[in-house]
Design goal:
The chain has 54 helices and 26 strands. By secondary structure, the protein is α/β, with parallel strands linked by helices. The strands form seven sheets. It has a five-stranded parallel beta sheet with strand order 2-3-7-1-8, sandwiched between helices. Strands 10-11-12-9-13 form a five-stranded parallel beta sheet, sandwiched between helices. A five-stranded mixed beta sheet has the order 22-19-26-24-25, with no helix packed on it. It is elongated and about 160 Å long.
């Protein structure tokens, strides 16, 4: 209603047909409302924000009013011009017939009159001869007088000009006197002793006025005269004497005796002094001018005498002329008659010729213009609808991608106009109304791509009401704007970080220049808000003024402001959306394909591309010229006055114009044919451009995984161009294209792998594979969706799994898999085959590498390779990464799963002086030593030509100095640990932008950990290199020993040193490699690196050398274990259980047992491999021992169970799936072809139906009365539960409103929608719930079980067996148990603790009564070990069983002093399998589990308990 009212008010004065006005208003409302739902979809599908504000609506209305008025005016003017031209052509045609008859009769009369005139002419000629003789005498005299008169005028002007020089000063003096107020004179006169300069001024006035008393007293007397100022104004300046002037000039010799100096003292004094100066100046000029004036007066007197003589001669001539008059009159009468008749005849003849030429030449124009007139009338009617579409496009669509713009403009809005029967052009094209072929040609020549999206962006940039803010990750907008504006932008390209941006902007606003802000992030300086909103005020005379900062600046309407951002997906709020026109310049796949086609053809067929570009330019110029010629024709015709048939020049111009237009038209026609031929040849290179476009979009989405994976279009184009230059040539085009495509794909793979972490390289290979298949139309999206997400149903399937060994989630996934495809699909019958015979499936399941074996029941022959991976997902998740590797190999080739080896020399070759090398660090990796080594090889010695420094607080200025020196002198600069100085990184970006022409040998090496603070600009232009420690024990140890020399080993004389260095290298490799097993390895992934190894080696050397020097046979093992385990490596360890692992390793590796000859030491051995210490000797012994080690190793080498590999591969698979899900576009349909929105809506409704009512806490409190400690816990728990229920209910309600477009889709709701779509627990709910790693389906089952426990607890009482996983904070319940026991038994709380025992119960129902003190706990899961129920202690895991549910645990409070445990292992109990994080969150308590093995075994196995697992 409000929107309708606003539109009605603003359109009230707009001329619209009465029957269409309501429809126009309703369409406007519909358009505004529709953008809300499009914005919600935009956020949901592409994670991009767009806000619809009232300003958009007002802008829409304003655009419509203006567009309608402008287009009506334009059409009116065009109609007038066309009509004028047509009328002239019609007039010419009508007159032709009449003129032909009249012309024949006129010719006879003309001949008769001509004879009569000739006879009279002879008489007149004789009389005229006499008159001419007399007249020549008078003329000679008159010429002499003219010369004399001119000289007098020059002399007079000279004198007057000299005099005029003094006039401005006199006028200035008069102004100064007029501005003087009587009060100011009175104020001066009141001074007893004025300032000396003021007194001098007054004395000068006294002298000029001729008053004898030249003193202050005389001056005061003079100023007392009430007519004082009038006397000065009327002063007789010509009466001044030389003496007066000389006296005044004496005063003027004082350098301070100037109006400016006196103004500082007295404005009145300054005014008087101006008068004095004016009088003196006038006197000087008058002295020079007066003699000239006298000379002029004398000359004028003589001239008057001469003129009298001339008058006498002229009188005589006049007398003679009178005699000639009669004859002349007779002749004129006769001649006039003859001439009039001849002129008419000639004119008619000429008009006939002109008309014929005009009618013949402009015949085609007459037809075309007639049709154009009719078309214009029709267009004028259709403007009502056309302008609605163009205005809505300009007001709303800027931030949207091409697909959304198309859906909005050409579908929803256009269809609504048609449905409302509003007149609109069909087919409608935005470009027709908002731009022209000529303008688009100019844009193309300025560098704007010619695809439809880019043209739309050009329109939005140049036509929108608001200043453009371009989202420009590929820098196409900024390049175009710079070329478009050219030199006008010199010095006016700034960022908000530049100190002088306000000053430069002020000048641009004042003088009407363009101004560009580049590299804008999500913050826009509020100082320019007024400029963005164009909040200028209009003063007197139409002068516009705007406030900028603390200044008022004059506004020039020619001022243009552009803002561009490199951010690929910035989030600008509603305020920014209302103030600017956000335009999405992000390149589309089709648009990029066209650009890459140009690059390819330019490289492969330079002649063809040059011809095309020349043709495009020529066609653009010709179209421009043709339009100008057409305009000229119309202008000349319509603006011609009188009869156009008389205007020979006009006729000639029209003929020339027409001829030129025909010539250009033919050229254009020929050019179109040539362009079509060229396009056919160019299109044959499309496959290479298409492959390049697909690959770029594979790269461009990687930043969703890690912000360091940012790639610019310019860097991709360098790779693309390099491929074109280096790929193998071929005689045939097909062969050449194949070579380009293969080389490009592999080059992009290698280039991208260089900047990826190892864990993401397989993800890249798979993503490349599926995107290339999608490009060929060979990808089944339904199967891909299943492969990545599995079964997302919130309910367990009704069909139960037939075998215990089949994974629970795997069976649910299989139930989803069999629904894919049509009825004939072999997938449909898989479940039946499984149920009909389990043995072959169990055998296949138990194989170590099932992906290499054929599936049971001959399925391998019926399923394609991707369907086989989907089936593998249902049984062996741990083998998916291997299967993906095989899939990529099958589709792409083995080289796409073999990342390039890090080669520092090659990295250097790929870099340039303008391309920084950014090393992205991972824990344990440090590229500095390798860079130093490369530098030494290339003559850049560290410290000399290679300057390096580690960044930290306050190091910015020093780093800047390094950069400036290095870029000019050609040094290598290495800045390490950039992530530690995030505040300075923006400055670094600015420094690099200003380095435009560095020394060619300059290189910048940067190292940083992944950080959000790293500037996008540097990432996009840099060569990114991820450095990781070597993968595997063997490679890790080889890396350590590559930096150890024989000289280094010889530094310590102790015989134990060399073996201990090997042990240390093994230990270093083990603690690093253990990281790959995730939480099973370390709770926190520590950054153990080369420095730890080197310093620990130095410590061993120091202590062993000391023992050797002291001839001490004892090695200080405890000291070494402490220094290495607690100080060096242990110094990084923050988690107590991780430190326990570290110390255990050192206890196992360091001791006299290393040198026990009777019982040789082994790190690990079995029948296949033996990890031992090589025989003591030179370095070669140890490197050989390392070389003999296997390339891969079993987890048992680290003390872990072989199942750890399964855990590792399972986690790797889940990470792979999660990352791939993040990379997929959100536009794909869900399973069963349902749209994404419908799927989310269904899931939301399903969850809503499962939400229970909240607990009535006041009633519960009343029932409980005075609560026990455990009842306090219950009340706290249900209070938290109620908050969860409330949040879930409200968020699901809001989500459904957002999906239907009733409210905007906020970032929180978008996150919720994404979670529901991907089957993940939304973070807004996760924050309120106990920590969990479950997917949404299993979480809902867990959620409902939590509710049942709370309900039973409130209705029945405290459970006999508590399910700790169901409590929000289980620690409080355990503390309450201890507190209850302490109260009953009188124990001091601070000296009480608890211990645990594992019962024989596996079923809670078997527990008949609750413990009086303590409790029974169910739902604990054992990881890293299994439980022997028969003997009641820990045992090794069974193969493939990664997690086992522990029998019911008994928790018993006890006094700490009475607790004596033996043969138990202190097992941490965590909330989830994510265990404890770096902040120590996640640990619940410690359980005491019985063991018959040494605790170190379970420590290294990573044994722990957790409350909930991810299934």
């Amino acid at each position: 209603q409000a929107l309708e009212s606003v539109a009605s008010v603003f359109l009230d004065d707009v001329e619209l047909p009465a029957n269409l006005r309501p429809q126009v208003v309703q369409h406007m409302v519909m358009t505004h409302e529709s953008v809300r739902s499009f914005s919600a979809r935009f956020l949901e599908q592409l994670r991009r924000y767009n806000y619809v504000t009232p300003k958009n609506y007002l802008d829409f209305i304003s655009n419509y009013r203006r567009s309608l008025a402008d287009n009506r005016t334009m059409i009116g003017e065009m109609s007038t011009r066309l009509d004028g031209g047509l009328q002239k052509l019609i007039q010419a045609a009508e007159e032709v017939d009449k003129m032909q008859v009249t012309l024949t009769q006129a010719k006879v009369v003309v001949d008769q009159k001509t004879n009569e005139c000739n006879e009279l002419l002879e008489v007149i000629a004789e009389s005229r001869k006499v008159v001419e003789e007399k007249q020549s005498v008078a003329q000679a005299k008159e010429e002499a007088l003219t010369v004399q008169s001119a000289k007098i005028s020059v002399d007079k002007e000279d004198a007057e000009a000299s005099l005029a020089a003094a006039i401005p000063a006199l006028e200035a003096a008069a102004d100064a006197l007029n501005n003087l107020k009587k009060e100011e004179i009175t104020e001066i006169r009141s001074f007893a002793k004025p300032h000396i300069l003021v007194q001098k001024v007054c004395e000068c006035v006294v002298i000029l006025r001729g008053i004898k008393d030249v003193s202050w007293k005389g001056a005061k007397g003079m100023m007392a005269d009430p007519r004082f100022l009038s006397t000065l104004i009327d002063f007789d300046k010509d009466g001044l004497t030389d003496r007066q002037v000389r006296q005044v000039k004496e005063y003027m010799k004082d350098p301070k005796f100037t109006p400016d100096e006196v103004m500082n003292i007295s404005s009145a004094g300054a005014g008087l002094l101006k008068w004095v100066y004016a009088m003196v100046n006038y006197n000087s000029v008058a002295k020079e001018v007066n003699p000239k004036r006298r000379a002029v007066a004398e000359a004028e007197r003589m001239l008057r005498t001469a003129e009298k003589d001339l008058a006498k001669v002229k009188a005589e001539v006049a007398s003679l002329n009178e005699q000639l008059d009669d004859l002349q009159k007779q002749f004129e009468t006769k001649t006039a008659e003859q001439q009039e008749l001849k002129t008419k005849a000639d004119l008619m003849e000429k008009r006939l010729g002109a008309a014929s030429r005009l009618i013949d030449g402009l015949g085609s124009e007459r037809t075309r213009w007639t049709n154009d007139m009719l078309d214009l009338e029709s267009r004028k009617e259709r403007l009502v609808g056309d302008c609605l579409l163009t205005s809505s496009f300009l007001s709303y669509t800027g931030a949207f991608t091409y697909d959304f713009r198309r859906d909005m403009t050409y579908q929803m809005w256009l269809e609504d106009l048609c449905a409302r029967e509003l007149p609109v052009t069909i087919p409608f094209r935005l470009e027709t109304l908002l731009t022209s072929d000529v303008e688009m040609g100019v844009w193309a020549s300025e560098g704007l791509p010619s695809d439809e999206l880019s043209i739309q962006n050009g329109i939005l940039t140049t036509r929108a009401n608001r200043f453009p803010l371009c989202i420009d990750p590929q820098m196409q907008a900024v390049s175009w704007i710079k070329r478009k504006e050219g030199k006008n932008l010199d010095g006016r390209v700034k960022t908000f970080n530049d100190s002088d941006f306000l000053k430069q902007m002020e000048m641009a606003i004042q003088y009407g220049f363009p101004f560009l802000f580049e590299n804008v992030d999500e913050y826009i300086d509020p100082t320019i808000d007024g400029v963005l909103e164009k909040n200028y005020t209009v003063g007197s005379g139409g002068r516009k003024v705007i406030r900028l900062g603390d200044k008022e600046v004059e506004w020039d309407d020619a001022f243009r402001l552009f803002l561009t951002s490199k951010l690929p997906n910035p989030h600008y709020g509603p305020e920014t959306s209302g103030k600017t026109m956000i335009i999405n310049y992000s390149v589309t796949q089709q648009g990029l394909q066209e650009q890459l086609l140009n690059v390819t053809v330019r490289n492969e067929r330079a002649d063809l591309e040059e011809q095309r570009e020349s043709l495009v330019k020529e066609m653009s110029e010709n179209k421009t010229l043709l339009k100008q010629l057409e305009d000229t024709l119309l202008k000349e015709l319509s603006s011609a006055t009188g009869n156009i048939l008389d205007n020979q020049e006009l006729i000639q111009t029209l003929e020339n114009t027409k001829a030129k237009a025909v010539e250009i038209g033919e050229k254009l026609s020929q050019a179109k044919e040539t362009a079509a031929e060229i396009e056919i040849v160019r299109s044959r290179y499309t496959p290479a451009a298409k492959r390049g476009s697909i690959l770029f979009f594979v790269l461009s989405v990687l930043s969703a995984i890690n912000n360091m994976y940012e790639y610019s279009l310019s860097s991709f184009l360098m790779v693309f161009q390099n491929t074109l230059n280096t790929s193998k040539k071929d005689a045939t085009l097909e062969g050449r294209l194949r070579n380009i495509i293969d080389a490009l794909t592999f080059d992009v793979y290698n280039y991208t792998c260089l900047g990826l972490f190892e864990k993401h390289k397989l993800m890249l290979s798979f993503q490349m594979t599926i995107k290339l298949l999608e490009g060929e139309g060979e990808l089944n999206h339904e199967q891909l969706n299943f492969f990545l997400k599995g079964n997302l149903s919130l309910e367990k399937s009704a069909r139960k799994k037939p075998y215990e060994w089949w994974p629970d989630q795997g069976w649910e996934d299989l139930m989803s898999l069999i629904t894919l495809g049509d009825e004939e699909s072999p997938l449909r019958g898989i479940a039946d085959l499984v149920e009909s015979g389990g043995k072959p499936w169990k055998e296949w399941y138990d194989v170590e590498k099932p992906e290499e074996m054929p599936f049971p029941c001959g399925l391998t022959d019926h399923l394609n390779i991707f369907e086989q991976m989907c089936l593998l997902r249902c049984l062996r998740v741990d083998r998916i990464t291997v299967a993906v590797t095989r899939y990529v190999t099958n589709k792409m080739g083995e080289k796409y799963i073999t990342p390039p080896v890090l080669d520092y020399t090659n990295i250097y070759k790929q870099s340039t002086a303008l391309t920084p090398i950014v090393f992205v660090l991972s824990p344990g990796a440090d590229p500095a030593f390798d860079v130093f080594k490369l530098g030494e090889e290339m003559g850049f010695k560290p410290g000399a030509k290679l300057k390096y420094m580690a960044l930290g607080q306050g190091m910015g200025p020093k780093a800047q100095e390094f950069l400036e020196t290095g870029s000019t002198r050609g040094l290598w600069i290495m800045l390490q640990n950039c992530h530690l100085l995030p505040s300075w990184l923006k400055t670094l970006e600015k420094i690099l932008e200003k380095i435009e022409k560095p020394h060619k040998e300059f290189r910048l090496w940067l190292t940083t950990e992944p950080t959000e603070a790293f500037p996008l600009g540097i990432l996009q232009r840099a060569l990114k290199v991820v450095t990781e420690p070597p993968n595997g024990l063997k490679l890790n140890m080889r890396s350590s020993y590559s930096k150890i020399t024989d000289e280094l080993l010889a530094e310590c004389p102790h015989m134990a040193f060399r073996p201990l260095v090997y042990v240390l290298a093994f230990f270093h490799a083990v603690v690093q490699e253990r990281r790959k097993y995730g939480k099973l390895g370390w709770n926190v992934p520590y950054d153990f690196n080369e420095t730890d190894f080197r310093i620990s080696m130095a410590l061993i050397s120091t202590y062993l050398t000391k023992a050797f020097d002291n001839q001490d046979d004892m090695i200080p093992w405890n000291t070494l274990r402490y220094l290495i385990g607690e100080a060096m490596y242990g110094g990084r360890v923050s988690d107590s259980y991780d430190r326990r692992i570290l110390i255990t390793y050192l206890d196992e590796y360091l001791g006299d047992f290393l040198f026990d000859t009777f019982q040789p030491f082994h790190f690990f051995y079995n029948k296949e491999v033996d990890y031992t210490v090589p025989e003591t000797g030179p370095r070669e012994n140890y490197t050989k021992g390392i070389a003999d080690l296997p390339i891969t190793q079993s987890p048992e080498v680290f003390g872990l169970h072989p199942n750890a590999d399964i855990s590792y591969y399972t986690n790797a698979t889940k990470t792979l799936w999660r990352d791939l899900v993040d990379l997929q576009p959100r536009t794909a349909g869900s399973a069963g072809g349902m749209s994404r929105e419908d799927h989310i809506g269904n899931v939301a409704r399903d969850i809503q139906s499962k939400l229970p009512e909240p607990f009535d806490i006041p009633v519960l409190k009343k029932e409980i009365g005075i609560p026990s400690p455990t009842q306090v816990v219950l009340l706290q728990e249900v209070d938290r539960w109620n908050r969860i229920i409330s949040k879930m209910r409200s968020s699901l309600k809001d989500l459904q409103k957002a999906l239907s477009g009733e409210i905007g889709m906020s970032s929180e709701l978008d996150e919720l929608a994404t979670g529901l779509y991907n089957g993940q627990l939304p973070s807004m709910w996760a924050r309120l719930n106990p920590a969990t790693e479950k997917m949404l389906g299993s979480w809902m089952i867990w959620f409902q079980r939590r509710y049942r426990q709370y309900r039973d607890w409130t209705e029945i009482g405290e459970p006999r067996v508590i399910w700790l996983s169901g409590l929000a904070i289980p620690e409080t319940y355990i503390a309450a148990l201890v507190q209850t026991a302490c109260r009953d038994k009188g124990w001091p709380l601070d000296k009480s603790t608890l211990y645990t025992t594992v019962t024989k119960f596996t079923d809670p129902d078997k527990v008949t009564e609750k413990l009086k003190f303590g409790c029974y706990v169910q739902g604990l899961y054992l990881e890293g070990a299994a439980w022997d129920l028969k003997h009641g202690y820990l045992r090794r895991q069974d193969p493939k069983i990664l997690v086992q549910e522990l029998p019911i645990l008994q928790i018993i409070p006890i006094e700490a002093s009475k607790l004596k445990l033996s043969n138990t292992f202190k097992t941490p109990v965590y909330v989830t399998q994510g265990r404890r994080n770096a902040a120590g969150v996640g640990l619940v308590f410690e359980a005491d589990l019985a063991t018959n093995q040494h605790p170190s075994h379970w420590i290294l196995q990573g044994t722990s308990l957790c409350l909930n697992i991810d299934e």
